[in-house]
Design goal:
Keywords: NAD, Oxidoreductase. The chain is of the alpha/beta class. It is built from 10 helices and 8 strands. Strand 1, helix 1 and strand 2 form a beta-alpha-beta unit.
Length: 289
């Protein structure tokens, strides 16, 4: 099922985004660039302060790349460390670390703070939505929306409807994505949904090819780009996702599906251990310093 990506007169939204990591920052840039006010929340004040500079830089980049609508002033950004900021939001997007217990705890606390009827959106790449919905006071308000990185450059979002997700929550999320000029493709709930269930095991296999000495990372990506039409190559994509995030997602998939192809390769695990997390750390499969 696909919904229209545009809305001539979208309703006003006031977002709270939880988590000032890579995805929280990217989602915040997307919203601000479309004129929506955002309250960005993270328990780490230092991380929040750094996020402000990153948001400014990515807003400029998005504008230069023509990824933002012309003639719209950026929305107002407010940052803070308290979840109480979510109380006045029209929608809350949770983008904390890809750990089911952490996400469930944050969503449970937020569910008790927001007005009934406020959609809660979990930005997860692999954790089933219904697994998290059990932590909420009103599980029908939870929807999964998997934004790709960077959200302000990718015009489609995977929307995951859990078994208990209600029609009002789906309508609210569809309206929000229309205001963000994003095409929403709705799928059913499952570990990894569609994008991660296909992409992450493929990246894992690409890492195994490098680990086994069959080819370099550069050769793998060149072949996947030149022969199979992958836009960036799987290992450059891994660096963009964040190799730590990728390993977390693969572990979730392996635990919930039993598919041994989702067990993180030793090379991916070693890169995380060495702090080579991809673009965000300056080094991953490639060097960005």
């Amino acid at each position: 099922m696909t919904t229209a990506p545009h809305d001539e007169s979208p309703p006003r939204h006031a977002l709270t985004v939880l988590g000032a990591g890579v995805m929280g920052v990217g989602i915040t840039v997307l919203a601000l660039g479309h004129g929506l006010p955002v309250h960005l929340v993270d328990v780490d004040r230092e991380l929040l302060d750094r996020a402000g500079d990153r948001i400014d830089g990515e807003l400029r980049l998005a504008e230069l790349m023509g990824a933002l609508p012309p003639g719209i002033s950026p929305g107002e950004l407010v940052t803070g460390t308290s979840l109480k900021a979510a109380a006045g939001a029209t929608a809350v997007i949770e983008a904390v670390t890809e750990n089911a217990a952490t996400k469930a705890a944050v969503l449970s606390e937020v569910s008790a703070l927001v007005r009934p009827g406020t959609p809660l959106i979990t930005n997860t790449s692999s954790i089933p939505v219904d697994e998290l919905a059990g932590a909420l006071e009103r599980p029908e308000e939870l929807v999964g929306t998997h934004f790709m990185n960077p959200p302000y450059l990718i015009g489609t979002a995977e929307v995951v409807r859990g078994p208990r997700t209600g029609e009002p929550a789906m309508a609210a999320v569809t309206s929000l994505l229309a205001a963000l000029r994003r095409r929403a493709v709705v799928v059913r709930d499952a570990p990894g949904f569609v994008t991660s269930r296909i992409l992450h095991p493929m990246i894992n296999d690409a890492a195994r090819v490098v680990e086994e000495g069959t080819a370099t990372a550069e050769a793998v990506d060149a072949l996947m780009q030149g022969c199979l039409g992958h836009p960036t190559g799987p290992l450059r994509t891994a660096d963009l996702i964040g190799i730590d995030n990728l390993v977390d997602s693969l572990r979730v998939l392996h635990e919930r599906t039993g598919d041994d192809g989702c067990r993180p390769s030793e090379l991916l695990v070693r890169l995380v251990r060495e702090g080579r997390l991809g673009r965000k750390s300056g080094r991953g499969f490639y060097d960005y310093t």
